[in-house]
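User: Before I run my own analysis I want an independent prediction to cross-check against. Here's the chain; please return only the structure tokens and, at the end, one sentence I can use as a sanity check.
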Amino acid sequence: MYYYHTLSNGIRIVFRQNNSIVTHSGVYINIGSRDESPSQEGIAHFIEHSVFKGTSHRRSYHILNRIDGVGGELNAFTTKEETCIYASSLSVHLERCLELFADIIFHSTFPEREIEKEKEVILEEINSYKDSPAELIYDDFEEYIFGKHPLAHNILGSKRNVKRFTSDDLRTFLADNYTTDRMVISIVGSADFKKVVHLCERYFGDHPLEASAAQRDGSPDYSQFDLTVNRHTHQMHVMMGCQAPSVFDERKVAFSLLNNIIGGPAMNSRLNVAIREKYGFCYAIESQYTPFSDAGLFYIYAGIDADARQQFDELVRRELRQLADNQLSTSRLHAAKQQYVGQMAINNELALNEMQAIGKSYLTFDHVDTLEEMQRDIESVTAAEIATLAGDLFTNSHISTLCYK
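Assistant: Structure tokens:
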């Protein structure tokens, strides 16, 4: 059972109670790299790093020591559409976490000296991605898929932008976008919900109601592409995929199930069996589906030997075509649904994963589905829906490819 509350300033709270001695808590903010102008590209991620560098009440060391000093873990991440600051700690330290979240979100000062040091850290992060083709290809593929749309923005930004960001730039972006109407506090732990609300009121409630003026563009255009880039890698890195249903698309559940069948984490996924197990063409192969607010991304990734490139492409396309041309039998569809529900249940057994999942869900939908509700949605998917989706999206003229060699 999930509990909800909205503070007078518009900040929303979602909570699930358990019996653990560890509590996972976080603040989700509905701002990510897609909300940046071209000259700001990378600033949301830069702020995620820099909120730990000093507030009007604390220096950087005191921030880092506040949670870690009692055995907890403090962290943050930025995506295309969200920023999350979160912590795991003993349940007795929940108040400490919430107070710190409020301090760094509302009172960060971005000291210039600390900002200059953090630039070097992020520049090294960018370098590390460029040295890892298996990671870089994901960002490049997204840029080609989404073209000039803000969803194409690289989360890390460019070296040029990072070098020129100032403390004033960070403060302005934060003030314009870290507004109360875009925030959700998500908690999974053993505290009483009344106490949770009281603590959130105490540390977040006195901040004034704010509404962001940020507006997101409409759906991105898409043109199929086939590109090969010479990066002098030992193996060929291959990405295949296309745009997919958005998070609000009624086909999202069916496509999530379809993706899990194609290349989900299980060893019996169709691609793993047809390509890795049968031919040994790759160490691992996976597919992924990421829905955004107005579009989605589907991709298949593998690292292969260059000599296997043509056969690999043919095998992948054959598996995709078969899903369109041959409806799943009743027994196979039932097994796929059981597998997907089981995977979700196991994933949610990790309370940190659950805290992040319900925070994102409440931020996006103003509601969190229970596992039972998600299972009902999955059970309602038909074999005809799966085949139709595959037929619509997995044509040769729609699937794009990017290769590093």
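Sanity check: The first strand starts at residue 3 and ends at 6.
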